[in-house]
Write a structure and sequence with these properties.
Blueprint lengths: L22 H11 L1 H13 L6 H9 L7 H6 L5 H13 L5 H9 L4 H10 L7 H25 L20 E7 L2 E6 L5 E3 L17 E6 L4 E6 L5 E6 L6 H7 L1 H9 L5
Parallel strand pairs: 1-6
Antiparallel strand pairs: 1-2, 2-3, 4-5, 5-6
Helix pairs in contact: 1-9, 2-5, 2-8, 5-8, 7-8
Bound molecules: zinc ion (ZN) (2 copies).
Length: about 270
């Protein structure tokens, strides 16, 4: 049964990709293109220093509460404008933004903190192209910051007995399910934490694969199944755990699945 109101969030896929008959070639070429962004993402995780009360986080998880409050953790990192400049630079090198747009965004009135917090709150993505780039940059920063915060809380053994649908670390909604030896693990769309799924069917209502429950559409080119619930309107992308690449790359190559689901009015 659904025990948590799911947060609605734009997922951190960075661009629309075209399908390829070869999963590995899509993954490899996307990872190559995003290499500058992945470096910036890793650097931000190294330097952002989010403040997490680790002992309190462990007590909260043991009591069934999420480890930390994501917005407070983001704010504990202070001014994020240097990180924003770093990410925009990586976007330009990766060919995701023009030099003119990058300069305009740096000279403009972008409130990075507000954009990052807006992503956590589930604000809708802006429609203007330049604002969308700013939002993409904020997602890379936000994901790096909460990844670093979750790493401080511990490894997945810390939440081995977690039985909720929301992320045990940050409270985010899962967007990807990973199957390994008959077990299903969920991946947080915000901080990338993984935990054992309490359900094998829909995360919102526990419906199972059936014409009236979950519709499952396989995408062999990407190596994912898109699972859409006809009962409660949630969707999830599922794949084998083996061979999982960088989640930034995984979300980028599967962005078209998110768009297809969202166009049907579904949410994670
Ligand atoms: Zn999380
Ligand atoms: Zn459902």
């Amino acid at each position: 049964m659904a025990d948590d109101p799911p947060a609605r969030r734009r997922l951190p896929g960075l661009m629309a990709t075209t399908s390829s008959p070869r999963t590995t070639s899509v993954r490899r070429s996307t990872a190559e293109q995003l290499a500058p962004v992945l470096r910036a993402h890793a650097d931000i995780q190294d330097v952002c220093a989010p403040v997490v009360d680790v002992a309190a986080a462990h007590r909260r998880i043991a009591g069934g509460q999420v480890a930390y409050e994501a917005l407070g953790v983001v704010r504990s990192c202070g001014d994020l404008s240097a990180q924003f400049a770093r990410v925009l630079e990586s976007f330009e090198v990766a060919g995701l933004v023009s030099n003119a747009d990058r300069v305009a965004l740096l000279d403009g009135d972008v409130d990075v903190d507000d954009l990052v917090c807006g992503w956590f709150r589930g604000d809708r993505a802006p429609s203007a192209a330049r604002r969308r780039i700013a939002r993409m940059g904020a997602i890379v920063i936000g994901n790096a910051v909460v990844r670093a915060a979750t790493a401080r809380v511990g490894t997945s053994s810390r939440w081995a007995s977690w039985s909720r649908v929301i992320c045990p670390a940050c409270g985010g909604a899962p967007d990807i399910a990973l199957i390994e030896r008959g077990q299903r693990f969920l991946v947080c769309s915000c901080c990338d934490a993984q935990w054992r799924s309490p359900h094998s069917g829909c995360l919102g209502c526990d419906a199972v694969d059936s014409p009236t429950g979950i519709a499952r559409i396989g995408n062999p080119a990407l190596g994912y199944d898109l699972m859409m619930c006809n009962s409660c309107g949630r969707f999830l992308k599922e794949r084998p755990r083996r061979g999982l690449g960088s989640l930034l790359v995984e979300r980028t190559i599967t962005a078209e699945l998110d768009v297809a689901a969202e166009q049907r009015g579904l949410r994670i």
